[in-house]
């Protein structure tokens, strides 16, 4: 019965119903603000519950699209309202719907001005994220892809820190500049194939010479979103200035848009170009891993350190994607989901102590374990997951990426592995400075313990991080069929046999 329902449309646009209800809530008093918060949390939670239908109704033996909806949109141009999910997009939709209510709950007391507008921005952001991952038409994808920028721009620019306007504009201009080239690429593909339908474009054989140019156009957009070195500089600024909830969504979901784009478009539609540019992307990724890890070691701001660690972790993702083998691509996908959970949790952990001391400087802390032992345990789990300790979700993704990298090039695998050592160095250094030692600073001694709201956010994140680390099969079973199909398609290209055999 449920298969006949437009589940994807419901999940995509349900948050907008919440926006409508919030707009109808009149007044600016405390009662009205509380009602807006309650509406936002209930609507986003209900959206997550409805989105679970996608997981439980998903056929893990199929590599094709499921829950498809296709309606004529712009008939004269052959553009359709086309939604559907496969093993690549479905986990990202669940990640988006899972993190949104947690992010709203994280901002419960920290957002004091324009509460209604903040909740509206978050619900609109959720619609844009889900719509982007569910879109099977290029024009729809582009509209949702760009639409994500607007609410996030407002979240950073209105509710951010002292340099929020600078950070918001930097974030917006960097991402918009890259996306313009992707729009040109979409127009060229439409003129070539006569359609913007993604499944059709995936089967269309673009000439290799054209693939190279199209790949560069899409790469410009996705590389900024990941972000890859050297177009990563917007990320630390955006994270530092964004409110805690904004950082959680930015790190948890928005950084994954680039990786998703590479797997959805670059590999299946431009296979020759993907093979050709793979060594170049390896170089950029290795530089990102080592350079940003060293920069992270020099940070005094907790948020900035975790932001640079995100760039390093996404370097693993891009290496995994362009190994062009099953282990690497599966590892990249797993790493993105894992990093979405871990980074959101880490930014929330920073937000917890920031709400108490109103500083993110590492030197302001020390001995937090004495006054907040529960917090120290949660922070430790998140930190170890970020490092990639066996038993956490971070380990599964990283080991699969390293196996895939070794099959492509042992040299790339070696340099990627150095990132693990550096990652452990800066994360353990951060944990030691903040959590260990004696609580001697008066402000630290007076910090209250975790409240129920904070525990409610941390517990589900911890459960999933440990669950995927101990038993990754629920996610791997979803990924394997479609990853095998993509890997096979790339390996069958004319250049694959010649270029995938690296000399080292």
Could you characterize the architecture of this molecule?
The protein has 504 residues and is mainly alpha-helical. The protein has one domain (2-499). The protein has 23 helices and two strands. A two-stranded antiparallel ribbon has the order 1-2. Helix 7 (164-193) runs antiparallel to helix 9 (208-225), helix 9 (208-225) runs antiparallel to helix 12 (256-269) and helix 15 (326-357) crosses helix 22. The radius of gyration is 22 Å and the shape is globular. The termini are far apart.
What would a concise description of this structure say?
The protein has 504 residues and is mainly alpha-helical.
What are the SSEs and their pairings?
Elements: H1 7-24, H2 30-56, E1 66-74, E2 79-85, H3 89-106, H4 115-134, H5 138-147, H6 149-159, H7 164-193, H8 198-203, H9 208-225, H10 234-241, H11 244-254, H12 256-269, H13 271-297, H14 302-322, H15 326-357, H16 368-371, H17 373-387, H18 393-408, H19 410-435, H20 442-445, H21 452-470, H22 473-491, H23 496-499
Antiparallel strand pairs: 1-2
Helix pairs in contact: 1-2, 1-4, 2-3, 2-4, 3-4, 3-11, 3-15, 4-5, 4-6, 5-7, 6-7, 7-9, 7-10, 9-12, 9-13, 10-14, 11-15, 12-13, 12-14, 12-15, 13-14, 13-19, 14-15, 14-18, 14-19, 15-17, 15-18, 15-21, 15-22, 17-19, 17-21, 18-19, 18-21
Helix proportion: over 70%
Summed up, the helix count is 23
Count of discrete structural domains: 1
Sheet with most strands: strand arrangement: 1-2
Oligomer: single chain
For the terminal residues, how far apart are their CA atoms? 54 Å
Overall average pLDDT: 86
Radius of gyration: 22 Å
Tell me the total number of β-strands: 2
Task: Give the SSE order as H and E letters.
Answer: HHEEHHHHHHHHHHHHHHHHHHHHH
Low-confidence stretches: 499-504
| Main sheet properties | 2 strands, antiparallel
């Amino acid at each position: 019965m449920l298969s006949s329902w437009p589940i994807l449309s419901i999940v995509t646009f349900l948050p907008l119903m919440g926006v409508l209800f919030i707009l109808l809530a009149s007044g600016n008093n405390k009662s009205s603000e509380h009602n807006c918060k309650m509406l936002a949390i209930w609507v986003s939670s209900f959206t997550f519950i409805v989105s679970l239908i996608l997981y439980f109704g998903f056929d893990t033996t199929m590599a094709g699209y499921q829950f498809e909806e296709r309606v004529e949109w712009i008939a004269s141009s052959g553009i359709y309202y086309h939604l559907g999910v496969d093993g690549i997009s479905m986990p990202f939709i669940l990640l988006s719907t899972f993190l949104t209510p947690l992010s709203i709950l994280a901002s419960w007391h920290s957002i004091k001005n324009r509460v209604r507008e903040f909740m509206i921005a978050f619900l609109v952001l959720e619609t844009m994220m889900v719509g982007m991952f569910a879109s099977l038409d290029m024009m729809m994808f582009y509209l949702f892809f760009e639409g994500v920028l607007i609410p996030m721009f407002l979240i950073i620019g209105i509710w951010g820190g002292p340099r929020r306007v600078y950070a918001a504009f930097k974030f917006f201009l960097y991402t918009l500049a890259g996306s313009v080239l992707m729009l040109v690429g979409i127009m060229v593909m439409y003129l070539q194939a006569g359609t913007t339908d993604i499944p059709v474009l995936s089967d269309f054989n673009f000439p290799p010479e054209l693939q190279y140019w199209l790949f560069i156009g899409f790469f410009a957009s996705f590389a900024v979103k990941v972000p890859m070195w050297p177009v990563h500089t917007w990320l630390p600024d955006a994270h530092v200035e964004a409110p805690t909830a904004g950082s959680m969504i930015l790190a948890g979901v928005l950084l994954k848009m680039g990786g998703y784009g590479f797997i959805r478009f670059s590999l299946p539609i431009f296979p020759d170009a993907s093979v050709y540019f793979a060594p170049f992307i390896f170089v950029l990724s290795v530089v990102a891993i080592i350079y940003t890890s060293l920069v992270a070691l020099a940070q005094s701001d907790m948020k900035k350190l975790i932001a640079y660690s995100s760039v390093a972790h996404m370097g693993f993702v891009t290496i995994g994607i362009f190994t062009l083998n099953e282990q690497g691509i599966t590892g990249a996908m797993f790493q993105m989901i894992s990093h979405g959970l871990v980074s959101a949790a880490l930014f929330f952990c920073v937000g917890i102590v920031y709400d108490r001391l109103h500083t993110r400087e590492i030197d302001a802390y020390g001995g937090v374990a004495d006054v907040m032992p529960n917090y120290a345990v949660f922070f430790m789990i998140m930190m170890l997951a970020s490092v990639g300790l066996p038993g956490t979700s971070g380990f599964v993704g990283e080991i699969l990426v390293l196996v895939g990298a070794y099959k492509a090039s042992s040299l790339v695998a070696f340099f990627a592995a150095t990132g693990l050592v550096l990652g452990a160095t800066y994360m353990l250094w951060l944990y030691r400075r903040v959590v260990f030692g004696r609580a001697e600073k008066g402000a630290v001694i007076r910090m209250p313990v975790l409240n129920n709201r904070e525990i409610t956010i941390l517990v589900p994140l911890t459960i999933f991080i440990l669950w995927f680390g101990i038993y990754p099969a629920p996610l791997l079973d979803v990924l394997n069929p479609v990853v095998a199909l993509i890997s096979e398609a790339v390996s069958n290209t004319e250049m694959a046999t010649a270029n995938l055999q690296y000399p080292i």
